[in-house]
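pinned: reference chain
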Amino acid sequence: MRKIISEGFHPSIDNQILKKVGFNDEEIRIIKSIAYTWYITKIGEINLSKATSYKYVLIKPTNRLQEMFNIEKELGVIFSDYDDLQPRTLDAFDVLHTELATWRIEKICSILISRDLNVVKKINGFIKSDVEARIIIPFGYQEFEDPFSVGTNIENRFREHFYDRDLFAFSSPLKKDVYFFGRKDLIHTIINRHKSNENSGLFGLRKTGKTSVIYGIKRALERDKRSIPIIIDCQDTSFNQREWYEALYFLCLKAYEVLKELKIKENKKLNMKEPVREKFTKIDASLETEKYLTICKTHMKDTLFFIFDEIENISIRTSAVEHWKNGTSFIPFWQTLRSLFQRKTDLLSYLIIGTNPYSIEQPTINGTDNPIYNFIKPEYIQGFTVSDTKEMVNKLGLIMGLEFDETIFSKLTEDFGGHPFLIRQVCSIINQLIVTNKSIKKPASIDRNIYYKAKDIYMQKNSEYIEMILTVLNNYYEDEYEMLKYLAIGNTEDFYILAEDKALTNHLLGYGILYKNHNIYDFKIDLIKKYILDKNRYKNKVLTMEEKWREISDRRNRIEPKLRNLVKMILLSNLGAEEARKVILDILGSNRKRKYDSLSFIDLFNPSKGEIYFLDLQKIINKKWELFKNIFQNSKKSTFENLEKINQYRNDAHAKDIDEDDFILFRIAISKLEEEINRFFS
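pinned: its structure tokens
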């Protein structure tokens, strides 16, 4: 049975307690006004510094407000008794959520009551510069003068700030906890391994939330108040451009900076010096690293925890820096760290994160044992479960005024393989559809029809995200990428021949691109299948006669309007409308010339007014070859052989059989033409 929450005060709060905390008479009046429609549960004060403090109250929505705004937890209300509101005031909410139990307070939304008369305008400005800022509902002190209108004013302000913001529109890694969902078990697993002096490796495709996991680990360890992870960004040139011994110095320097940050938070001074760069030579770097990190450990309550993000930037084969790529830095760097890990128990542990586990999969490098082969076990970041998807979409959606049908959570998870970035992008499109539809008002119900419409829009327009996600396979795992092509176009015979190599399928299953059920493989993300199919739909080797003619017809019908448009643009830009018109009419011959003599150049190319066939386009290109030769990069002879081969198979030719060799020649010819035309319009 649902607990009834009524407006008012917790029994422990009265005027005397309010004044003891430091609330003045005006603020007490404001709190009492809020208590007409909310339940006041707790009061207190937080300090940002010795000179800056803020008073707060926690308020719990009544049952009516819970239903209205889909908020059940308590909200933090901070009072800013300063005439000029500054951005640092928002830090008070972070402190409040850190000091109080996070399960108790709603993390996405808070209230600010300020003496600044321009508080609403200023808060809107502050939030625009921080996409991860929680929703701050701003009020001025003066807005609480009439206690009987306070409830309505708060409700209206909530609607205004909830419904205007798209909480799904995140493209960068999430640094804060406010909008971070899922992955909690993964974070706890990695932290527990660290505490057990074990190493971890986490890999995944682009935009799967790997960097957000790093920030989640950092926040969790900071709450534990035992250590701060030492995060090494391997794509930072100040790190990856260094030789191995200089890179060890960089690690020690980062450890020093983290310790210094930790001591500053504790209002203490770090009683140790920075590492001396000159001591880290090829001969002594290993010894210096051991000595310095041993000293660092004495200032840390826990084992040193190094996190190497974007590890492929210092890995063999995948790094853009030659001395890492060829192994001359990779081998001694990891030999040093592995030796240190094995000899100095409880000194340090590692987490390496990236898109590509190649560096830990190779037993030898240039004839030398790979120091981190079997030293770090690779783990792949998994997609959201239906429960994770529901938690994220439901929470953000309800606050934005979007109430999703229960069936949509499983559809989102299934259609997009639990990929959180893709799921948020689709939900963002759903929000846009609602916002732009004048006939729909928030709060709005999201049914399957709206979902399917948003999904279709996304799948048509977002191939660049899929291309970015698949880059790691395309660049470094060619066999695996070829397997995806086979499966997408239906060439299961070649796919299952390659699938006998478990190392290949392990990557595809690990990355969450495919799933396996009773020895049957299929795509886990439909968007990836569609993208690969669109790029490779004409590469299937075994086709029926009907399928061959369907492909010929489809590709001719796609390419002919593009070729017509290309010819029109080239003639117009080089000859001008009137001269180009004469060229076209001469090509058409006497009957069509008389018929279309009154048409303008543009109308000649309008299919509803003029008739320009594929053969006409060939003749125009032939007559004005000098204008087209830089577009068709083959010789004139080869170009026209290709055009003739394409024109040979017209739409009315379906009654004929097509020889396999001729069909292959058609594919070669039209693929070349498609490539040249697409390059022109790109």
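why pinned: The mean pLDDT is 85. The CA atoms of residues 387 and 409 lie 8 Å apart.
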